[in-house]
Amino acid sequence: MTLPDKTIAIRHAIAKIGDGASVMIGGFGVPGTPFCLIKELVRQGPKNLTIIKNDANETGMGVDWLLEAGQVAKLITSHIGLNGRAIKMMNEGEIKVEFSPQGILAERIRVAGAGTMGFVTDIGMGTDLARGKTEITIGGKTGLLEPALQADFALVHAAKSDSFGNLVYAATARNFNPLIAMAADFTIAEVETILPVGHIPPDAVHTPGPFVDHVVALPSLPEVYGVVKR
Amino acid sequence: MELLNAKERMLRRAAQEIEVGMIVNLGIGLPTQVTNYLPDGFAVCLHSENGIAGVGYLAANGLADRNLIDAGGAYVTPVKGAAYFDSAVSFAIVRSGRLDLTMLGAFQVSAKGDLANWMIPGFFTPGAGGAIELAQKARKVAVITTHTDKKGCPKIVQDCTLPLTAAACVSRIYTDLAVIDVAPDGLHLIEIAKGVDVDDIINKTGTRLHLPNGEIPTF
Predict the structure, then answer these.
(1) Which of A112, A144, A196, B36 could make a disulfide contact with A150, Cβ separation 3.0–4.6 Å?
(2) Residue B124, pLDDT above cutoff 90
(3) Under an 8 A CB cutoff, do A29 and B50 touch?
(4) Residues in chain B closer than 8 A to A183 (CB atoms)
(5) Residue A156: CATH number of its domain
(6) Burial letters A170-179, b for 16+ CB under 10 A, else e
(7) Mapping DSSP to helix (H, G, I), strand (E, B) and coil, where does residue B109 land?
(8) Relative orientation angle of helices A102-113 and B87-95, to the nearest 10 degrees
(9) In chain A, which residues have their Cβ closer than 8 Å to the Cβ of B52?
(10) What is the CATH number of domain B6-210?
């Protein structure tokens, strides 16, 4: 037997994303953000997207390209402080923004990927964040119900993969990538180095291939992936 | 000869909060600068919520790894034995009580130890990031902040007027003027910065401070 080959051209992978889709995007700041997949999403131009990402990158980068192109209807995130355009669009009502505490956002995505419907936590109890959430008592402790967060698509950046989509991330470029890879109906991974199957030791795989639908090779890394000069 | 300015003395004093063997998360801004005051080889594990246990010093110019930042976006180095993990694991470390200490910045801290540090309605609404879980779940929460804001208004207040990050979470406050403990009966002034007048501290604090008996130690 041999494992299926999931490599595909970037334009075909992104062409599946239509108007109104929900799209999870990996990355915490620059590391792990799939800039090439985002750029192709801007080129193809589907509108009215719900974007789910830890942050909104910085002005002029990544998610900001989608905001600038007017493709985003809603952003589900934990922090957008480095993107002035995102804050302005939120304040002027051009996009809806839903905030979750960072670890709650991660866990909502994780439980969706695990095939469960939500979890109960005391995070945010007694603050404004608890408003509108359902309280549940388990074993005498009361917490808030946090629903699983699932999406139509996940756009992932990995350092290495094989042609089956076994993914390996580098350092802090891991962040939300393995979580979103599990939580979407359709997962597209852009990969810096694609190896033949068998060249990633089974113990070294971070995201197993069954979670990945398409693997897109990055022929070279544009400058946006580099160290940010401040 | 005393060469450190008030901010440096505050950070050096705050660094003494970190004990050998601890797992510690240092918040963005002043708290991350505390690492500059830890002795070489000090046995501590620094956690950063974007997915590192074992954060080391900042990367030297030209030696930054494009894939290795801390939660504040600074390029860092790993210490020997560091581990990387995803964001769900990172916050599992936080919520399950594995952090012995977090040191955070503040807009306001109340007499009860309530912390407001993530939003100023109408002016600053970036989202909370990881602050809520850190403030609510670290075993000890210390705040490092200037004693007053840019307009000279007290940041240590009777009740926070800004939305809370977490209630009754702070147990110690380090400022450029003082070290203050949060106790059930209110705030206790335990140390003052060298050359600072106690009355000045009282005037710049928006709630009652309990004073120690006798001379107040300086830092």
Answers:
(1) A112
(2) no
(3) yes
(4) none
(5) 3.40.1080.10
(6) bbbbbbbbbb
(7) strand
(8) 120
(9) 171-172
(10) 3.40.1080.10
The residues, ordered by sequence, that sit 6+ positions from A106 with a Cβ below 8 Å of its Cβ are: A54, A176, A179, B86, B87, B88, B90, B91
Cβ neighbors of B133 (< 8 A, separation 6 or more) are A101, A102, A103, A104, A123, B91, B94, B95
Residues 6+ apart with CB under 8 A from A13: A37, A40, A188, A214, A216
pLDDT digit string, tens, across residues B148-160: 999 999 999 999 9
Expressed in angstroms, the distance from the first to the final Cα of chain A is 51
By DSSP bridging, strand A22-25 and strand A49-52 are parallel
Is A224 a domain residue? no
Domain assignment present for A138 = no
Average pLDDT estimate for A35-47: 98
What ipTM was predicted for this assembly?
0.97
Q: Residue A171 falls within a domain, yes or no?
A: yes
Q: Which residues does residue B148 pair with via DSSP β-bridges, in sequence order?
A: B154
Torsion of CA A121, A127, A129, A130, to 10 degrees: 60
Distance CA A152, CA A150 (A): 7
Whether residue A65 is contained in a domain is answered as yes
Residue-number span of the structural domain to which A212 is assigned:
10-117+148-218
Q: Which two tokens stand for residue B199?
A: 């009355």
Q: Is the pLDDT of residue A84 over 60?
A: yes
Confidence of residue B1 (pLDDT cuts 50, 70, 90): very low
Q: Which of B19, B49, B133, B191 is catalytic?
A: B49
Known catalytic membership, residue B49: yes
| Average pLDDT of the segment spanning A42-69 | 97
Per-residue pLDDT tens digits for B22-52: 999 999 889 999 999 999 899 999 999 999 9
Q: What is the mean pLDDT of chain B?
A: 95
**Domain count across chain A:** 1
Using a 10 angstrom Cβ sphere, with 0-12 exposed, 13-18 middle and 19 or more buried, the burial of residue B8 is middle
Nearest Cα to Cα of residue A81 among A58, A50, A104, A105: A58
pLDDT at B4 over 80: no
Q: How confident is the model at residue B11 (pLDDT cuts 50, 70, 90)?
A: very high
Q: How far apart are CA A221 and CA A226, in angstroms?
A: 8
Residue of B28, B50, B93, B119 to mutate, interface with A, max A Cβ within 10 Å: B50
Query: Does residue A147 have a pLDDT over 80?
Result: yes
Phi and psi angles of residue A85, each rounded to the nearest 5 degrees, phi first: -65, -40
Give the best residue of A177, A207, A227, A228 to mutate against chain B (max B CB count within 10 A): A227
